[in-house]
Amino acid sequence: MKQLLLGAFVGLALSGAAWAEEMKLAVTTSFHNSGLAEILLPEIQTDLGLEVQLLVVGTGQAIRLGEAGDVDAILVHSKKAEAAFLAGDYGTHRREIMYNDFVFIGPTGDAAGINSSASAAEALQRVATAEQPFVSRGDDSGTHKKELSLWRASDLDPEQFSGWYRAVGAGMGAALNTAAGMEAYIMADRASWLNFGNKGELSLLYAGDPVLFNQYAYLPVNPDKHPHVRHELALALEEWLVSDKAKSLIDGYQINGETLFVFNAKAVN
Question: Helix, strand or coil for residue 194?
Fold first, then answer.
């Protein structure tokens, strides 16, 4: 609950018809920091008469909100955690919506030399070998889960790291701000990085390894578990999110000429 209060309940109560329906959607801080919500939500209200209130948290907290029935649906990016959510019958199904990728950010001087790495694993190994400052979300978010899996794939254990590794227990924007202040390395999603305004001496140093693929999926909360959830509204939002209009808005969203997300909605699985 503390993380929810810190990560923030963001109610996007947009002006519109008084008869607008309301639903709650838990989304990741990386999605919110990208700015895409500001593009999509007004169109959703116009087309559906639906006011979507966002609870902006990490993936782990979003899943817990869904398990508790505190939201009607979740939009997250950790396939393993999503599978567990469905296995517990907390969600009715999973639908992929869009993707981007994770990238490694660091000081422009790149003392660890990750820019010439052949893989994400090698990039992390170079940071660890050089013991250069590294900021971790440390918040059980999808980004944090992915980062930990990459350390494991590199045969490294963050719990054994010394003072150069700092887990901040914060959202993507706050973690990037910390990295900027420390001139530290950090793993971020591309959308949050492109929309981040306090880059300072940081640069995008490494990207492109297929393992850095970052899929976002939409999961409605199961009304059999929580009869009070607004399941029909969650389904209506899902159908809008996979529509041609949503595809156009998602694919067309750019910052400085760079695309932040790629629409790839798939059938229910």
Answer: helix
pTM for the complete prediction? 0.86
Domain carrying residue 179: 102-212
- CA separation for the pair 202, 16 (Å, rounded): 40
199 in a domain, yes or no?
yes
In 58-209, which residue ranges form alpha helices assigned H by DSSP? 59-68, 79-87, 120-130, 142-153, 172-182, 190-194
Tokens 């019958």, residue located: 89
Of 212, 237, 253, which one is at a domain's C-terminal end? 212
Summarised one tens digit per residue, pLDDT across range 27-69 is 998 888 899 999 999 999 999 999 999 999 989 999 999 999 9
Listed in sequence order, the residues at least 6 apart from 141 whose beta carbon sits closer than 8 Å to its beta carbon are 28, 29, 30, 58, 59, 60, 61, 171, 172
* 169 and 84 fall within a common domain: no
Report the domain count for the chain. Answer: 2
Of 120, 102, 65, the residue nearest 53 (C-alpha): 65
Residues 119 and 204 both lie in one domain: yes
